[in-house]
Amino acid sequence: MTKAGFIALIGEPNAGKSTLLNRMVGAKVSIVTHKVQTTRTRIRGVAIEGESQLVFVDTPGLFKPRRRLDRAMVAAAWGGAADADIIVLMVEAHRGITEGVERILEGLQDVGKGRTVALAINKLDKVKAEVLLSLTKDLNERFPFTESFMISAEKGYGVSDLRTWLAERMPESPWLYPEDQIADLPMRMIAAEMTREKLTLRLHQELPYQLTVETENWQERKDGSARVEQIIYVSRDGHKGILLGHKGETIKAVSKAAREELSEFLGRKIHLFLQVKVREGWQEEAARYSEMGLNFKDGNV
After folding, report:
1. Count of CB atoms within 10 A of residue 98's CB?
2. Which of 16, 59, 78, 177 is least crowded, fewest Cβ atoms below 10 Å from its Cβ?
3. Domains of the chain, with CATH numbers?
């Protein structure tokens, strides 16, 4: 008897959702950086636990939206939660019940009503035991969580217990994906996300939120390697200069890091070519949202 179902990971930006997804799946399928709001799409990672196939939906972080892109990301997050069999709310132990967590708890009163919703308090190693217990009690008084877990997504503490619990509660079903598939994102999108992660790590302040990466061409070669061409869209001419760097040093470093990670991920040689284009107002173009797996109309005020 096999089981399969969807699990939505929700929480504030930087709560550790992407880190948990990657640990559950056992491979890097979601962008992980120190900057907030980096996950833009509902990335699905697939894990096997016994007879259960767990399909994780790493939703964009829930925050107070300011721009069209923000609103589309928040809509995608709640949409992912509404479609899932189980919702897991991740809260950072050392930050506790912030204004953002309060907003999510309010949203759960509707979306989580009558559903299986688990609480995962992340980064347990950052606070004392009594603080963890007090926070768990406070959160359970605000919402009737089915179960509570204390974990460290980065170090792996408590993750196997959460994974086993999720597997036991999956509905009876044939597996939804082939056994060796770890994500349902097209490889072109995973490649674009890898490059965007390297850009986000390299660049500062607002610029990472003003750019997007698209894989324009993917050509398989006879020797088993692949030629991958990507376009980095930025909003202004000034951004292009920052992205290229002095004598092209920044873009070269980003290209090298993304190429190496993509080659390792696929287990074969990748020839990566990056091009930077200025496209004013790309955040108002429906085509860019489709490429990111977001609904353009969800960004309407």
Report:
1. 12
2. 177
3. 3-168 (3.40.50.300), 187-299 (3.30.300.20)
